[in-house]
Amino acid sequence: MNPANRPIVLFGATTPSGAAFLNLAAGRSVLVAGRQCPAHWPPEHFLRCDLGSPAPPAGLIRPDAVVVSFAPIWSLAPFLASLLAASGSNIHPKPSLCGVVACSSSSVLTKRFAANRFDRDLVRRLATAEDTIEACSNAAGISCRILQPSLIYGQAGEYGDQNLSRLVQLMARLPVLPIPAETGLRQPIHARQLAAVALHLVDQPNAAPRRTALGGDECLSYASMLERLREAVLLLDQRDPVGRCRLLPLPNRLFHLLTAPLLPLSAKGFEAVLRIEANLADFPKAHSILGTAPQRFPVAPLAPSAKTKTKTNHVSPACQP
Ligand SMILES: NC(=O)c1ccc[n+]([C@@H]2O[C@H](COP(=O)([O-])OP(=O)(O)OC[C@H]3O[C@@H](n4cnc5c(N)ncnc54)[C@H](OP(=O)(O)O)[C@@H]3O)[C@@H](O)[C@H]2O)c1
Fold first, then answer.
1. 316 CB under 6 A from ligand 1?
2. Which of 153, 206, 223, 246 has the highest local Cβ count within 10 Å?
3. What is the DSSP annotation of 149-204?
């Protein structure tokens, strides 16, 4: 079969990346699998399926299909292992699927040496899930690509991110936002860029290694990221309250002193604040995998601020800026 005609089974459709994927894959055969049907998606192309359930529904046995997932990889891994274990039996002599493109997180690399237990546990869960998916795909003889995206932002359909949009909301509320004078690098990726890479790998798995850390097309300092976000919001509405917020760069040592009281309250929160100074960037760029021109940060559309209603997910532990 021509890879561009392969049917797709999509998990995580109710996320910005999933909604962007559905948009980019319009016209292709896509079955959405999940706990709830996305708004405006035809119910006949939806399969109710909880990744936490012990047995995969029979409708998921599709030897010609590629599974694409934007759901938490630690939920997908055991589910996929049990689905692929059905392969090779008398009932299902072929593998239940023909490929997997699964979303993990760059946290598996960047939080490896975290001082707090929460982040170290997250790394362990991500790494174990990646290993499980790779092993069961190898055993079934199907292709497997794991994407480890950095900070995902933006709006797609009804779904908006809960990380950069929160920073915009913070700027909208505060007249002054203290930040360290020297901030680290970030490489945020728009949900549509991530979705485009995932779709590209459905058709051309060899366009990327088996596990690919992935960022947007630009590496920029945390401070520039905030400034660019503010400019983008003001370009849409000059009267937006973010225009009143000034970034206040403080000497790094003074910033540490001011944030130190957080440490006994939340080691994880304190480390997240310290990470503002860390370089979480220099990952392969989305445009280099897609073979397209680089896109300047921030790519539109951004998730609207709190005053506009939009569907958002809970904040994934894999996604804190
Ligand atoms: N956000 C970030 O900045 C970031 C950064 C790095 C990596 N990631 C990864 O990128 C992907 C998308 O991230 P996200 O933050 O937008 O979404 P997320 O909160 O990690 O995942 C939410 C999605 O997973 C589905 N899901 C969760 N549990 C499920 C289950 N038991 N059965 C079926 N579906 C289930 C949800 O469907 P329902 O509609 O049923 O709830 C929803 O579509 C995830 O793999 C995440 O780990 C995110």
1. yes
2. 153
3. E--EE-EETTEE-SSHHHHHHHHHH-SEEEEESS--EE--EEHHHHHHHHHHHHH-
Q: 107 CA to middle of ligand 1, Å?
A: 14
Q: Are residues 115 and 30 in the same domain?
A: yes
pTM comes to: 0.94
232/107 same-domain check: no
* Together in a domain, 206 and 255: no
For the segment 83-134, what is each residue's pLDDT rounded down to a tens digit?
998 765 666 667 889 999 999 999 999 999 999 999 999 999 999 999 999 9
Other CB atoms within a 10 A radius of the CB of residue 181 amount to 14
Domain range holding 23? 3-152+189-214
Q: Show the tokens assigned to 282.
A: 């220099």
The secondary structure of residue 306, as a DSSP letter, is: T
241 & 207 share domain: no
How many structural domains does the chain have?
2
